[in-house]
Amino acid sequence: MSKYKSINSSIKTHQSTASLPKEEVNVVLLGKQNVGKSALVVKYLTKRFICEYDPFLEDTYWKPDIVDQQEVLVKVMDTYGKDEKRLPYYLKWADAVLITYSITQQDSFEIALAYLDAITSYSKSLTVSTNELVLMLLGNKLDLERLRVIPKCEGEAIAAKFSCAFCETTAADDYEYVQHLFHRTVREVRKERERVVASNSIDEESSSTTTIIPMNSIVNFHCPSSSSSSNSSIHFTLSNETDKLSSLSNIPLPPPIPVNLIQKSTKLIKPNSQISMKSSSTTNLLLSPPIKAGSPTTTTNNISASTTPNTKRSSSKTSVFYKIFK
Ligand SMILES: Nc1nc2c(ncn2[C@@H]2O[C@H](COP(=O)(O)OP(=O)(O)OP(=O)(O)O)[C@@H](O)[C@H]2O)c(=O)[nH]1
């Protein structure tokens, strides 16, 4: 029998989905082993800190919460940080990625950097722009200030370099630290969704006077250079998002892009910019309605858990993720 405590065994599950909030925010935690990903997840879900967890667990949990007086279903995926082949899946699933390191462990910071690099590289090999992702660099174990080896300014500098959000927190101290982290993440995702809605409506206005060129006749794609002023997120394109797209009944889906064009259409979208086609028509698509920001936060305690199968480890050394896992 494992000496570790399963997260599932410590969380009261709540299987009814009938009354769950409609707004959903998917959050995935990535990072080296032992940086405290499971501890942060459990703290958010249960307000408790437990010392040992099954290190090979990969689970998704959900918790109805209220952020700025708006109900939201926060889904959290805890990963065990060993399988490079899972990274594209995580990125596709997530609205926000928390790349976690321990402020007491130099190599965990280096691995966080490798994640940022890998995600940036990966984004360059992706296809149709459908998903705007919030990235956050997260320093954990703030309660161990006396053992700190990564200065806060170093984390901030790297986050600025990658144009992502930054936060330091602890799973071992007051619940408010972790609550603040997840609420901030929800706010960042909402901001991002609002930004997409706003840029889509501007595009709709401008494209109403533009001749639409059929996708199949377009030879080249181009990405406008970034005019970013936000430093809270990196946006990039993700492939095979037809499930999400098909639920958007009021936005016409483009016809499939020929395979030989897909490779040419992949770009990293910097904050406040977007992928567009040569004709000025847009491939950016709306993922959710705008949400108004409001005031104070309260928390509900319903928690659910669903298990995703543990994945096999890969020994592949050829992917862009190699340097993370070697
Ligand atoms: N002092 C302190 N210890 C922490 C904190 N977060 C986690 N820990 C401890 O660090 C160890 C690793 O925590 P985990 O949550 O299992 O780390 P993990 O990143 O999920 O590790 P894997 O599941 O192996 O990827 C455990 O002993 C935790 O109790 C924290 O904020 N402060």
UniProtKB/TrEMBL annotation:
Regions crossing the membrane: none
GO MF annotations in UniProt: G protein activity; GTP binding
Catalytic activity: GTP + H2O = GDP + phosphate + H(+)
Record-linked InterPro entries: P-loop_NTPase, Ras-related_GTPase, Small_GTP-bd, Small_GTPase
Region described as Disordered: 287-326
EC number: 3.6.5.2
Keyword line: Hydrolase
Pfam family for this entry, one: Ras
UniProt cross-references to Gene3D superfamilies, sorted A to Z: P-loop containing nucleotide triphosphate hydrolases
Composition bias, Low complexity: 295-311
The keyword Magnesium is annotated on this UniProt entry: no
Family assignment from sequence similarity: Belongs to the small GTPase superfamily. Ras family.
Protein name (record): small monomeric GTPase
